[in-house]
Design brief:
single chain; 215 residues; alpha+beta; Hypothetical Protein Aq_1857, Chain: A; 5-stranded mixed sheet; 4 helices; globular
């Protein structure tokens, strides 16, 4: 099975410091809470180019590509940011209650993360998942490999398949909570995919990349 290759990273924080960018992302989160149509669907956290890729550089979202029924899904929350962490990081977001900060991964995804950590000989290697603006439906996922947890990150891992670290920042977390990370192997290539996002409307774009916020 081919492993994702790592490229040069662009610092994440370089893309999210502008007040306008933060306010746009938070507007999208507020729309979820209020269950009303967003004023602007192009309101997400900007991010660097993806470096976790198989055939595609983007994580795939589609309800038609859900994790298989035989796939075991599990994870545990190792760390969540505090209000003080968010203030220190200058991130305008709210800390989710523990019962809401949920994110699952299939055994296949955890095994792939294990393989990547083994290849890098680094148990701290993690997959960072971020929601950004873009695509024909307004939202899309991008991922990168990292070994540094930021102050506003939620940290998940598989309870038995380790190391299998996932980091999700405080702005992206409300937009992916309850989702499942899977790793799919197909004839055209292999890639990590976000499946069954409760915040996503319908099956997303036919391109299999972009998705629309459910309101």
């Amino acid at each position: 099975m081919p492993l994702p290759r790592q490229s040069t990273l662009v610092p994440l924080r370089a893309f999210v410091r502008s007040s306008a960018s933060r306010q746009q992302c938070l507007k999208g989160i507020a729309n979820i809470k209020a269950s009303s149509p967003p004023d602007n669907l192009n309101s997400r956290r900007a991010f660097s180019s993806s470096i976790v890729r198989g055939a595609s550089a983007l994580a795939d979202h589609s309800s038609r590509q859900q994790a298989g029924p035989k796939s075991t899904r599990s994870s545990r929350l190792l760390h969540s940011p505090s209000e003080r962490d968010l203030q220190e990081a200058e991130i305008e977001a709210e800390v989710l209650p523990v019962h809401e900060a949920t994110f699952q991964m299939t055994d296949a995804a955890a095994q792939q993360l294990q393989a990547i950590s083994g290849r890098d000989n680094n148990p701290n290697t993690a997959l960072r998942i971020v929601v950004e603006s873009g695509g024909c439906h307004g939202y899309q996922y991008r991922m990168e490999l990292t070994s540094k947890r930021e102050l506003d990150d939620y940290h998940f891992e598989h309870p038995s398949l380790k190391p299998s670290n996932i980091y999700i920042d405080a702005i992206s977390m409300p937009l992916v909570k309850g989702s499942t990370l899977d790793f799919a192997t197909e004839l055209i290539g292999s890639s990590f995919r976000i499946a069954e996002n409760p915040q996503a409307k319908g099956s997303g774009c036919g391109c299999g990349v972009s998705w629309e916020l459910k309101v």
